[in-house]
């Protein structure tokens, strides 16, 4: 009897699977490539998850140079891909251009706002919100001299390049720390590079020599060096994009997680089910598009409670977080 | 300014940033002294950085990781030498080809072997060294002590390199081959063998430089994590007039300028203008000291033995 | 016919070897090499659009390649074409968005200004330093390259050239009057290709037909003989580096006006480095530069397409590109193989 | 006792020529065996085969009773073959000692500088070849460099010593010194192969002579039983005029006048001291002197290639002291520099391009900055024919010409434009008799047409046979100016060595 059951369900499953299999999703990375330890990588993970869980057909092109964006997007569109994903604000112009030429293809762009196209969805993240929480946590840890902190009341942030997503994180971080600890000093540096962890490490050590005890890395691969520096000096680092607590469980204070993977997965799922919506989608604390990762065991519950309250306030709109760094 | 110069971290960072330049620069000295321009050092560093992590993680021993990196670096260097020396191919094109290849192959292996989360967190690191007595001297201790063991190895290698090149018979022959291979050959020296040696040494030292980045300063591999250090090392070597101490000095200068630009970033200047510092200082220093540097006469010129 | 084969078999065998080794790697890692190479080729030359994109990618490589070739031909090692490209791009974009002019003034103005800027970037510091203090131009041009890139970061990241009201570090779009129009719709190919081709012909003419080119080549091959023949060696060196930089600068301008239409914040364009290989593969001959540039452009566009249609990851595309370049350079491997085969045959005959 | 070396039926082909065609040669123990032959006859090739640098295509070498099958020079050295190469095989930035011991350093890992210097002092004493082991080779005069090359061979304890044109760049005194050494070596039982283009040297020093022509040995003669003319004819395969007839000396106006010229080098060492002389139309003024006594600095200063400290230069009465090199050329001065490959030619240019290396801006060859290649090629075709450049293909790169033909290209360029003044430095260095004859004839032709010639040469023979007046330079000072007809070799030789036999002549000037 079990045999017949299988036989009866299979055709149905197959058509379902076929339908999904025929749904083709293409992803074009920016020149950072999949291994950027940042949004390209997260987007790719979301894509992989969609392939595995939804059975859609996926394909990736990693752009080598900026002039590849238009041809790569065009190639996907021309080959009848249903959804084409552009990763990164650098692909804004290219996505605008190609989406206009292929109105029947759906596009998703990460980290950039395209509003006037019926076939383009933009996934924007409120990095400043999670940055705010990370900053508040750091501010409180400094103020109360928790764990490894001696209370210099100085914290730092190491950015990759001075680009919008990076600055939104740092802007929030700044505001959050100041909000709970007005006297705190925040060092902000950039390495001008997303793939030089050795430089990131020295940059972090430099901040540490200037008194910083908690350093927020917003620098992709470069940031691994920041975490390493915190580990060596037995201080704290804050991870970014993914939950990076596993890199140094004792020394990662928390991570400012940005769920690009979730955004990608959700949009694929919506498009597959005919629910594709153009325009800007915001991923924020409220819809779990951003959020803090694992919090270090050194942090007492009281502080965690305060941070959670701040999160609630942001979600409720009681706190507005600006996306601009103040000098 | 005084405050910055008195910050020991400035000087510690100088040494740390100089090391991954000085090692390939020393390597380049050997290779170019034997007459081969090895631009592939960048790629060799990168490949070595990857395999250092891989072997270190596989065996749980960072030293084996270093050894493995060196072996792989040597293999790549020998392939380069085969094409550049035995087949007399254009050394620059070959070097660039290897660099493109290295960038691709390491990222590819990273993905296929380790997936997206990157190299394993439990990869062992090479030890850091606390120098007794010195480590307790206030300022000096911070600057000189507590670096990765490779930093100290580099210093030792620096002296050995100088000794080897300028005080041994083999060093004499190696330099002869880079100056005038024909003369060396008529003196009964095997030009080809020595050029292989020169390139091999550059591979070995570049590999150490790469391993420093991945398992010396950190314990992970990131794509393109060498960030052009192989090229800057080449410039340092030229600046250093193809001598070990000169190369080391130029690497230090570069490391210092980089460290200084890090310290200065939080001052009033635009950070991007400050980041130009290492490069501008290098030019100024070069012009200031009358940067005439004469390469080995047969540098970059392939040689075909007569018979 | 036989002669032609004799000329060609070495490079052909070299490419074959590269393809075979690439195949082995692909097979070992689970990809279909036939499919990969077919899509590499189709991606590069399969249809008009792909050809157009390949040519479009060749444009900046031709121009930077020419710049590098000029310097190599004159015995100087300008490896800073990357920086000169950026300077040219910066100036062209600035002129492109700052002024309103008729196109026939706007475009030439931007191009010429970019050439001058690129030329000064290479000629002033590296050129004068080389001519008068002997400072090695390998170092100075490389350092100036990094400086140029940081200069562009400075301009774009909340600097004077950043688009007003934007948070994105990019310049405003250039005015329409400064845009070099596209030649083929839906591709990246602009009329810039004609500028590149004209530049190659000009450089050929300049280097090989004019007295100035004659002087520069003489200085490049033998400084002493040039001095003994009454030529001004330092001046020629400065000028050679300047001219070299001018074409790299032109590359930046043509790319901005023809393709990108604005300046983005980026680490490198990569053109300046590829240009070195392009020039060397072309043996520094201006016309050869065109073909070498197209080869590289084809590998570039083809490898993008190879990811799409053969699912070969981008990194593998680099691996194969590296191999092809390696074996084209080491083309004498064909002789080695021939020798091996001959020896084997001899053995067999003996047996 | 058997011969030290037997060369049997050696053949060596290069892509375009058979350099050695079935060559046979026997060198007896303890003899000085000279080898003569035109440029490109295959002498150096044969020597390189004996030394293990080239592998012959066929044939045998028997050395010291055993057959040689050399895989490289290191084996030849081991067997006891030493060679001094035609083109120096030295490393300029190395010291003398390093150059000599290279490849056979005193045992050990470390380079034992003391030991090396000691060994070198020993042999240099033994053979009376003084040299400072710590001097850098690049700072040495050509003669001293030659000495280093010879010491290199001695150091390796050669049984057979090959000297490939060792005298090409030596002064007469140095040559004599070398000969003394060679004789002494012969006494000690060493065998020597000696290659030279100078017939009188061959006659003076050798026991037997083998003549080569176009890759073949055309005969071996006992030196005592032959003479210059026979050897020259055998070499070239035709009658050769050894003594050139000079027409009558009819000096005209003063062309070049150098007044109190002083030149210092970059280290501020005085190289030319207060030199004054005049050259007239229809006159060859020869400057004799041992290499390194300021000849080059003098010429380069006159040519605007080197700063002058004081003094002035006049050309047809016009002050040209501060003229640039190009301006001087425009005035009608031609210049054949000493080193044809380094200074005279762009080796990667074609012959045609090299022929206009100075004149490319001339309206004949270019219009508005564009070179008229048609004109350039017409000129090249004519010159190549006129000056007998072989092969007569002007599109060939200068690199692919033999040294003699390279020199002809320079000659064609400098003499071909009928200059008013020709400055020629070492115009026949390393050339065979046929070629020398030709060059000398062209120079004399130019003089007869009324040009002034400033001839600088290390070859006393050349100076004496061509010059109308002879100046002798020593340590940057012009010692005296002698009449070309009456001056004797001894006179000049003494002045070259720095002794003023007659102070009054100098003061009277
Ligand atoms: N490396 C080479 N490749 C090709 N051909 C060569 C090479 N060396 C020599 N030849 C050829 O061999 C011939 C003999 O040259 P070789 O150098 O032996 O002449 P030579 O007698 O020593 O002349 P010279 O008296 O000028 O030194 C040359 O004419 C040339 O054609
Ligand atoms: N490496 C080489 N490859 C090809 N041809 C060569 C090479 N070396 C020499 N030749 C050829 O050999 C010929 C003679 O060369 P070589 O240098 O022996 O001339 P030469 O007559 O001996 O000159 P010199 O007067 O300087 O002694 C030239 O025609 C040249 O084309
Ligand atoms: Mg010769
Ligand atoms: Mg010879």
UniProtKB/TrEMBL annotation, chain B:
<keyword id="KW-0812">Transmembrane</keyword>
<dbReference type="Pfam" id="PF02653">
    <property type="entry name" value="BPD_transp_2"/>
</dbReference>
<dbReference type="GO" id="GO:0022857">
    <property type="term" value="F:transmembrane transporter activity"/>
</dbReference>
<feature type="transmembrane region" description="Helical">
    <location>
        <begin position="92"/>
        <end position="116"/>
    </location>
</feature>
<keyword id="KW-1133">Transmembrane helix</keyword>
<feature type="transmembrane region" description="Helical">
    <location>
        <begin position="62"/>
        <end position="85"/>
    </location>
</feature>
<keyword id="KW-1003">Cell membrane</keyword>
<feature type="transmembrane region" description="Helical">
    <location>
        <begin position="196"/>
        <end position="218"/>
    </location>
</feature>
<dbReference type="GO" id="GO:0005886">
    <property type="term" value="C:plasma membrane"/>
</dbReference>
<feature type="transmembrane region" description="Helical">
    <location>
        <begin position="149"/>
        <end position="166"/>
    </location>
</feature>
<feature type="transmembrane region" description="Helical">
    <location>
        <begin position="6"/>
        <end position="23"/>
    </location>
</feature>
<feature type="transmembrane region" description="Helical">
    <location>
        <begin position="272"/>
        <end position="291"/>
    </location>
</feature>
<feature type="transmembrane region" description="Helical">
    <location>
        <begin position="230"/>
        <end position="260"/>
    </location>
</feature>
<feature type="transmembrane region" description="Helical">
    <location>
        <begin position="35"/>
        <end position="56"/>
    </location>
</feature>
<keyword id="KW-0472">Membrane</keyword>
From TrEMBL, chain C:
<protein>
    <submittedName>
        <fullName>Uncharacterized ABC-type transport system, permease component</fullName>
    </submittedName>
</protein>
<keyword id="KW-1133">Transmembrane helix</keyword>
<feature type="transmembrane region" description="Helical">
    <location>
        <begin position="189"/>
        <end position="207"/>
    </location>
</feature>
<dbReference type="Pfam" id="PF02653">
    <property type="entry name" value="BPD_transp_2"/>
</dbReference>
<dbReference type="GO" id="GO:0022857">
    <property type="term" value="F:transmembrane transporter activity"/>
</dbReference>
<dbReference type="InterPro" id="IPR001851">
    <property type="entry name" value="ABC_transp_permease"/>
</dbReference>
<feature type="transmembrane region" description="Helical">
    <location>
        <begin position="59"/>
        <end position="79"/>
    </location>
</feature>
<dbReference type="GO" id="GO:0005886">
    <property type="term" value="C:plasma membrane"/>
</dbReference>
<feature type="transmembrane region" description="Helical">
    <location>
        <begin position="271"/>
        <end position="299"/>
    </location>
</feature>
<keyword id="KW-0812">Transmembrane</keyword>
<feature type="transmembrane region" description="Helical">
    <location>
        <begin position="85"/>
        <end position="104"/>
    </location>
</feature>
<feature type="transmembrane region" description="Helical">
    <location>
        <begin position="111"/>
        <end position="132"/>
    </location>
</feature>
<keyword id="KW-1003">Cell membrane</keyword>
<keyword id="KW-0472">Membrane</keyword>
<feature type="transmembrane region" description="Helical">
    <location>
        <begin position="237"/>
        <end position="259"/>
    </location>
</feature>
UniProtKB/TrEMBL annotation, chain D:
<keyword id="KW-0813">Transport</keyword>
<dbReference type="InterPro" id="IPR017871">
    <property type="entry name" value="ABC_transporter-like_CS"/>
</dbReference>
<keyword id="KW-0547">Nucleotide-binding</keyword>
<protein>
    <submittedName>
        <fullName>ABC transporter ATP-binding protein</fullName>
    </submittedName>
</protein>
<dbReference type="Pfam" id="PF00005">
    <property type="entry name" value="ABC_tran"/>
</dbReference>
<dbReference type="GO" id="GO:0016887">
    <property type="term" value="F:ATP hydrolysis activity"/>
</dbReference>
<keyword id="KW-0067">ATP-binding</keyword>
<dbReference type="GO" id="GO:0005524">
    <property type="term" value="F:ATP binding"/>
</dbReference>
<keyword id="KW-0472">Membrane</keyword>
<dbReference type="InterPro" id="IPR050107">
    <property type="entry name" value="ABC_carbohydrate_import_ATPase"/>
</dbReference>
<dbReference type="InterPro" id="IPR027417">
    <property type="entry name" value="P-loop_NTPase"/>
</dbReference>
<keyword id="KW-0677">Repeat</keyword>
<keyword id="KW-1003">Cell membrane</keyword>
<feature type="domain" description="ABC transporter">
    <location>
        <begin position="256"/>
        <end position="500"/>
    </location>
</feature>
<dbReference type="InterPro" id="IPR003439">
    <property type="entry name" value="ABC_transporter-like_ATP-bd"/>
</dbReference>
């Amino acid at each position: 009897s079990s045999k017949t059951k299988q036989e009866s369900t299979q055709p149905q499953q197959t058509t379902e699977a076929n339908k999904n299999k025929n749904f083709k999703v293409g992803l074009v990375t920016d020149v950072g490539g999949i291994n950027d330890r940042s949004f390209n990588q997260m987007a790719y993970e979301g894509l992989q998850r969609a392939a595995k869980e939804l059975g859609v057909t996926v394909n990736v092109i990693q752009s080598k140079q900026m002039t590849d964006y238009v041809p790569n997007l065009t190639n996907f569109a021309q080959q009848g891909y249903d959804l084409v994903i552009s990763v990164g604000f650098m692909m804004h112009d290219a996505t605008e251009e190609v989406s206009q030429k292929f109105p029947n293809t759906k596009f998703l762009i990460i980290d950039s706002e395209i509003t006037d196209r019926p076939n383009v969805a933009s996934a924007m993240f409120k990095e400043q919100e999670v940055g705010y929480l990370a900053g508040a946590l750091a501010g409180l840890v400094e103020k109360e001299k928790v764990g490894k902190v001696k209370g210099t009341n100085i914290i730092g942030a190491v950015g990759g390049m001075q680009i919008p997503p990076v600055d939104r994180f740092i802007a929030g971080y700044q505001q959050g720390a100041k909000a709970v600890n007005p006297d705190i000093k925040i060092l902000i540096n950039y390495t001008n590079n997303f793939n030089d962890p050795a430089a990131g490490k020295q940059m972090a050590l430099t901040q540490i020599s200037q008194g910083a005890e908690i350093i927020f890395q917003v620098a992709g691969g470069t940031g691994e060096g920041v975490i390493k520096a915190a580990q060596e000096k037995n201080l704290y680092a804050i991870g970014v994009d993914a939950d990076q607590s596993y890199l140094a469980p004792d020394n990662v204070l928390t991570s400012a997680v940005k769920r690009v993977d979730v955004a990608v997965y959700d949009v694929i799922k919506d498009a597959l089910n005919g629910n594709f919506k153009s325009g800007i989608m915001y991923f924020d604390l409220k819809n779990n598009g951003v959020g803090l990762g694992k919090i270090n065991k050194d942090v007492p519950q009281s502080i965690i409670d305060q941070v959670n309250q701040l999160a609630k306030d942001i979600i409720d709109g009681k706190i507005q977080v600006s996306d601009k760094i103040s000098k | 300014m005084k405050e910055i110069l008195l910050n020991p971290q400035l000087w510690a960072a100088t040494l740390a940033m100089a090391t991954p330049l000085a090692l390939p620069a020393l390597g380049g000295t050997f290779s170019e002294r034997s007459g081969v321009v090895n631009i592939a050092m960048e790629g060799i560093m990168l490949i070595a950085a990857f395999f250092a992590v891989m072997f270190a993680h596989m065996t749980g021993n960072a030293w084996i990781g270093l050894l493995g990196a060196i072996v792989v670096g040597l293999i790549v260097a020998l392939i380069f030498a085969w094409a550049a020396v035995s087949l007399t191919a254009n050394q620059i094109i070959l070097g660039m080809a290897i660099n493109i290849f290295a960038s691709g192959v390491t990222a590819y292996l990273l993905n296929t072997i380790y997936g997206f989360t990157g190299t394993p967190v439990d990869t062992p690191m090479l030890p850091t060294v606390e120098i007794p007595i010195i480590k307790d001297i206030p300022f000096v201790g911070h600057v000189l002590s507590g670096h990765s063991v490779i930093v100290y190895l580099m210093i030792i290698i620096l002296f050995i390199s100088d000794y080897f090149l300028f005080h041994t018979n083999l060093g004499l022959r190696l330099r002869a081959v880079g100056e005038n291979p024909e003369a060396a050959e008529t003196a009964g020296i095997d030009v080809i063998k020595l050029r292989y040696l020169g390139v091999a040494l550059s591979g070995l030292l570049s590999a150490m430089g790469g391993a420093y980045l991945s398992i010396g300063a950190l314990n992970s591999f990131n794509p393109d994590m060498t960030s052009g250090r192989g090229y800057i090392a080449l410039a340092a070597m030229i600046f250093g007039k193809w001598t070990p101490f000169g190369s080391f000095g130029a690497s230090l200068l570069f490391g210092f300028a980089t460290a200084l630009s890090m310290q200065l970033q939080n001052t009033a200047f635009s950070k991007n203008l400050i980041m130009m510092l290492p490069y501008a200082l290098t030019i100024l220093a070069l012009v200031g000291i009358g940067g005439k540097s004469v390469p080995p006469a047969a540098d970059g010129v392939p040689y075909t033995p007569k018979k | 016919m036989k002669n032609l084969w004799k000329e060609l078999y070495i490079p052909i065998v070299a490419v074959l070897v590269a393809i075979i080794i690439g195949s082995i790697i692909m097979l070992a890692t689970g990809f279909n090499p036939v499919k990969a190479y077919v899509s590499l080729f189709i991606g590069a030359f399969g249809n008009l659009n792909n050809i157009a994109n390949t040519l479009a990618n060749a444009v900046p490589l031709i121009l930077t390649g020419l710049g590098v070739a000029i310097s190599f031909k004159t015995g100087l090692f300008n490896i800073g074409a990357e920086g000169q490209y950026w300077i040219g791009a910066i100036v062209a974009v600035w002129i492109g968005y700052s002024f309103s002019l008729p196109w026939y003034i706007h475009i030439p103005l931007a191009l010429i200004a970019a050439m001058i800027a690129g030329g000064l970037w290479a000629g002033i510091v590296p050129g004068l330093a080389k001519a008068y203090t002997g400072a090695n131009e390998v170092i100075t041009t490389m350092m100036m390259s990094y400086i140029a890139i940081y200069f562009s970061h400075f301009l774009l990241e909340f600097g004077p050239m950043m688009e007003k009201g934007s948070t994105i570090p990019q310049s405003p779009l250039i005015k329409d009057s400064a845009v070099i129009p596209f030649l083929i719709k839906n591709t990246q190919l602009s009329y810039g290709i004609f500028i590149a081709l004209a530049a190659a012909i000009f450089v050929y003419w300049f280097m090989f037909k004019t007295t100035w080119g004659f002087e520069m080549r003489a200085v490049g091959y033998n400084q002493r003989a040039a001095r003994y023949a009454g030529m001004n060696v330092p001046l020629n060196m400065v000028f050679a580096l300047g001219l070299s930089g001018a074409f790299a600068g032109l590359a930046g301008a043509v790319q901005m006006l023809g393709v990108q239409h604005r300046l983005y914040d980026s680490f490198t364009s990569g053109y300046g480095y590829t240009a070195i290989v392009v020039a060397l593969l072309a043996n520094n001959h201006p016309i050869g530069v065109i073909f070498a540039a197209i080869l590289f452009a084809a590998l570039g566009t083809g490898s993008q397409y190879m990811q799409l249609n053969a699912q070969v990851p981008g990194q593998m595309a680099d691996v194969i590109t590296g191999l092809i370049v390696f074996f084209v350079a080491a083309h004498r491997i064909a002789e080695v193989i021939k020798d091996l085969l001959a020896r084997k045959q001899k053995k067999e005959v003996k047996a | 006792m058997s011969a030290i070396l037997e060369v049997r039926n050696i053949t060596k082909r290069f892509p375009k020529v058979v350099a050695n065609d079935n060559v046979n040669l026997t060198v007896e123990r303890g003899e000085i065996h000279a080898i003569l032959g035109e440029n490109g006859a295959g002498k150096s090739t044969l020597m390189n085969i004996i030394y293990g640098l080239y592998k012959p295509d066929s044939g045998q070498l028997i050395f010291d009773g055993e057959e040689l099958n050399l895989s490289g020079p290191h084996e030849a050295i081991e067997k006891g073959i030493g060679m001094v190469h035609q083109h120096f095989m030295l490393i300029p930035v190395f010291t003398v000692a390093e150059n000599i011991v290279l490849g056979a350093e005193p045992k050990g890992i470390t380079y034992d500088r003391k030991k090396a210097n000691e060994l070198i002092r020993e042999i240099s004493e033994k053979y009376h070849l003084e040299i400072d082991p710590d001097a850098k080779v690049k700072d040495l005069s050509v003669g001293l460099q030659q000495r280093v090359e010879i010491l290199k061979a001695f150091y390796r304890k050669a049984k057979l010593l090959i000297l490939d044109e060792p005298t090409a760049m030596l002064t007469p005194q140095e040559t004599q010194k070398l000969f003394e050494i060679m004789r002494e070596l012969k006494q000690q039982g060493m065998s020597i192969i000696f290659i030279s283009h100078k017939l009188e040297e061959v006659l003076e020093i050798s026991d037997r002579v083998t003549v080569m022509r176009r890759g073949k040995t055309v005969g071996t003669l006992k030196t005592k039983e032959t003479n210059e003319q026979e050897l020259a004819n055998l070499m070239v395969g035709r009658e050769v005029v050894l003594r050139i007839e000079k027409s009558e000396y009819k000096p005209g106006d003063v062309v070049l006048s150098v007044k109190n010229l002083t030149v210092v080098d970059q280290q501020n060492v005085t190289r030319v001291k207060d030199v004054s002389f005049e050259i007239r139309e229809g006159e060859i003024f020869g400057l004799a002197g041992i290499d390194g006594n300021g000849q080059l600095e003098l010429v380069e200063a006159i040519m605007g290639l080197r700063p002058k400290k004081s003094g002035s230069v006049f050309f047809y009465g016009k002050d040209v002291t501060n003229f640039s090199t190009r301006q001087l050329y425009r005035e009608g001065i031609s210049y054949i520099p000493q080193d044809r490959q380094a200074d005279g030619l762009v080796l990667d240019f074609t012959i045609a391009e090299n022929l206009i290396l100075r004149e490319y801006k001339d309206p004949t060859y270019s219009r508005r900055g564009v070179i008229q290649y048609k004109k350039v090629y017409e000129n090249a075709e004519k010159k190549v024919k006129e000056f007998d450049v072989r092969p007569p293909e002007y599109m060939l790169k200068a690199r692919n010409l033999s040294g003699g033909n390279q020199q002809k290209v320079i000659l064609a360029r400098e003499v071909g434009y009928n200059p008013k003044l020709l400055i020629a430095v070492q115009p026949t260095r390393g050339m065979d008799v046929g070629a020398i004859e030709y060059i000398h004839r062209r120079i004399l032709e130019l003089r007869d047409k009324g040009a002034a010639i400033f001839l600088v040469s290390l070859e006393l023979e050349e100076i004496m046979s061509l010059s109308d007046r002879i100046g002798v330079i020593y340590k940057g000072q012009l010692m005296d100016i002698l009449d070309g007809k009456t001056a004797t070799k001894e006179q000049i030789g003494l002045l070259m060595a720095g002794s003023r036999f007659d102070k009054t002549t100098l003061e009277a000037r």
